[in-house]
Amino acid sequence: MKQVVFRLLFLFELISFFAGSASAQTHPHIFSFNKTQFLLDGQPFQIISGEMHPARIPKIYWRNRIQMAKAMGCNTIAAYVFWNYQESKPGVFDFKTENRDIAEFIRICQQEGMWVIMRPGPYVCAEWDFGGIPPYLLQIPDIKIRCTDPRYMAAVERYMVKLAAITKPLLCTNGGPILMMQVENEYGSFGNDKIYLETLRKIWIRNGINVPFYTADGANAAMLDAGNIDGAAIGLDSGSSEADFEEAKKRNPNVPSFSSETYPGWLTHWGEKWARPDTADLLKEVKFLLDTKRSFNLYVIHGGTNFGFTAGANSFSATQFQPDVTSYDYDAPINEQGRPTPKYFALRKLIVQYVKYKIPAVPKSVETVSIPEIKMHAFTSVWSNLPKPVLSPQPKPMEALGQSSGYILYKTKLIGHKSGRLTITEPHDYATVFLNGKYVGKVERDGGKWSIELPKSDVENPVLEIFVEGMGHINFAQFMIDRKGITERVTLNGMTLMNWDIYKLPFDTQYIQTLKPAATDTMHKEVFFKGSFNLTNIADTYIDLSNYKKGVIWVNGHNLGRYWDIGPQKRLYCPASWLKKGENNVVIFDMQQTEAASVSGEKTSE
What pLDDT, on a 0 to 100 scale, did the predictor assign at position 25? Predict the structure, then answer.
């Protein structure tokens, strides 16, 4: 009898949980809304969402991170899809390899009893390179983005048609977990082309997307007027007061509004202190949303990592440039490595007081490992591994040559003026200058000080080399047309320098795997270092790069991202899935350092 009672109680709890949060079953559902609230199968439904981005999380941890969000009290996962991560070249899509399998991520959400809000772009911001827009579009000299420019829209529609085919079976109307689709993102902070926004919605509908749509904008009258379209629910970034929701009501009283981005943390740029907002203010805001039964999405519940060259940048003036750090920890409730923080437990404690469904136990944290000193040695240099150059009368940016990220080298002989004031217009984003192979200095984009003094030399026709790092395309506001390398010209004492050899250096997997060993040139800098370590136990670790200055690190061929000694980030996250038992290889490229130094693996980010 006790066994029967226990089973009945267990069944009741299971039914209650799925009724309150999300159904693991695959039968169709109708998600809709009236003037004031969202409805699931005709009943009021409060979205309590945690946002995470599959592209920033190793695929082996997708389920763990979703389970973590559920254990904090969420019933929904919001997810950006980064267009440029899925289509790196025109018409070449990848929705299967590594962490690009969006459909699998959505299926795991459903298996874990979670609903999904899709945020597919085409523009997303997200502190991601170019806000998710493919840099290949920048090959078009006069391209206009986020509007009805037919060249932009042709690429947009190609992407949307492909993504619609993948997501259509996963809509709640077809038995999947996707409740709602966002149209663009924070458009009112950029433009006012309602025809563009309506065109996006029509493309989705034409391709079988039959769930409700929403827009997301700041709680500001002008932004909401420009960014929202009739019939779409109103997302507020963020909705933290009655006044914010009143603004939404003024824009359209016939649709509900919700806090589409409630911020537990914030982003960090290189050279800043880590952003760590006050938890008390967050709890006050979430309590307001729970008290008033408003739906909300925590941006982000888990940030993850800007692996490789995926980090974006901000700019709010013609000479400002603020690149984002590699970590996207964001001071989120679930930290970069997937562990719950005090903020996580505070939110969990608050949410559990309001929801009717049972919140599961917090999953066990993923293991970490320390790695003792890893000795490195200088292996080769960029100068010993240059590809065939492209000849050009004047410098061209990366994108004009079909390159989207990494580095680029410009080389010319000085005729006429051979010393004096060298001006680079414009250096995007960090340039090192060499004269006859000797390092002269650096020129940074931020601040607009783009000149440097070239010393006199006794060489008849001195050789000038400018090595440029692209540090992520701007992802927000009005300066997003952001080509990398040298974007216009180079002058010496006002004379335009002509006839350049340009070397494309994307530092992709193929380039790194084919590096040729060679003696390093201490004058030139730009050195590659190599080392190895052995593991008997595979687990996550953070590679400590405190002994290096500025560059990129690869572990077993995987690009962990950028590091820079100006901080605040000194350690880069390396997931267990990129490590192996036995020997593991490390390659470090440093723009400024010529002497080898050791690195280590640490259990924490600081």
Answer: 55
